[in-house]
Amino acid sequence: MKINALMPGVFVAVITGLAALFLSEHYGAPAMLFALLLGIALSFLHNETKCQAGIEFAATHLLRVGVALLGFRIAFDDLISLGWSTAILLVVAIASTIIFGIFISRLLGLSQRFGALTGGSVAICGASAAMAISAIMPDSKDKERDTLLTIIGVTSLSTLAMILYPILASELSLTEQQTSIFLGGTIHDVAQVVGAGYSVSEQTGDLSTLVKLVRVSFLMPVVLLMLLVINAKFRQGGSSRKAANFPLFLIAFVIFMVLNSLVDLPVKATSIAIDISSFALVISIAAIGMKSNLSKLVSVGVKPILLMVAETIWIAGLILLALKWL
Fold first, then answer.
1. What is the pLDDT of residues 107-129, one digit of tens each?
2. CA nearest neighbour of 282 among 36, 24, 8, 60
3. Which of 137, 190, 134, 197 is nearest to 163 (CA)?
4. Between residues 313 and 274, the one the model is more confident about
5. What angle do CA 228, 63, 165 make, to 5 degrees?
6. Interior CA angle at 53 toward 49 and 58, to 5°?
7. What's the angle, vertex CA 121, arms to CA 154 and CA 291, rounded to 5?
8. Please, is 278 exposed, middle or buried when counting C-beta atoms within 10 Å of its C-beta (0-12, 13-18, 19+)?
9. What average pLDDT does this structure show over 271-292?
């Protein structure tokens, strides 16, 4: 595809992303939520021939770049420093939340695919996980709508949790370490974990961010497992569709994570990579918003919201019980 054909749409997505970052800095709300809302407001641009190709490119390829560079956030030392008990708790919380999401989605009459998408997003890293999981799911008429609903839901719930969870931790008389594990193990997005943790203390902020980054490290194995399940279902159903290959952006994610773990990279270099990742994800969310159909979002009703609220309560309740019990 010629660069000239991509430029108008990519340029619009980039400008929208910059506007979202500006609003985020001045009003303290998540940049991804602003990007999504601004993108939805500009959804008419996707119908324009000159912008359509670039918007599609930003919603797919830039998304994969952003997810791949998330690998620079994580190092193996992070996993080791938390200890086995905390790591096992996070594994149980992540796995059970995804299974819970799939189960409740069926009870609510929603698709299992949507339950896996929301469950993975709540369990791992919010909007970033939603986009990574969506990228490996088969195309369908509701895929874009479901992704948008999930991003809006988990971002809103994450912001609410950032405000309420530190208060809840104080009311329950959690220790500093318990508060850190609770905040880092339950709040959906990294930015909101940082906000909640440092609102308690600097030590809580450091440890809760570490716990959250360990959750982010589970993104790759969870997405890989989902991909294997999807391909197995295609084969069992006798579908003529070719099974999806292991995505290159996940291979890059693993390479960057290993590189960050084994090589003493300059802090400036990793900081730049993380900033590029964040901006690429903001741009791609803006583009996904531009591809949306607002009438479809309004028509789905309250069930998706109930599902994400239930998943949020599940992971929070599970970790609180474990912290009080262990």
1. 999 999 999 999 999 999 888 88
2. 36
3. 197
4. 313
5. 85
6. 140
7. 70
8. buried
9. 87
The tally of CA atoms less than 13 A away on the side-chain side of residue 245 is 4
Cα gap 45→54, rounded to integer Å: 11
- Residue for token digits 């995505």? 247
Q: Tokens representing 317?
A: 């309740």
Q: Among 126, 211, 218, which Cα is nearest to 176's?
A: 211
- For 152, other C-beta atoms within 10 Å of its C-beta total 22
Helices (H), the chain: 3-27, 31-41, 49-57, 63-69, 76-82, 84-107, 112-123, 126-136, 143-171, 176-186, 190-200, 202-217, 219-236, 248-262, 267-290, 294-299, 303-325
pTM (predicted TM-score): 0.77
Using a 10 angstrom Cβ sphere, with 0-12 exposed, 13-18 middle and 19 or more buried, the burial of residue 235 is exposed
Between helix 126-136 and helix 112-123 the angle, nearest 10°, is 140
Calpha distance 119→130 (Å, rounded):
9
In tens, the pLDDT along 139-191 reads 777 888 888 889 888 888 888 898 899 999 999 999 998 999 999 999 998 87
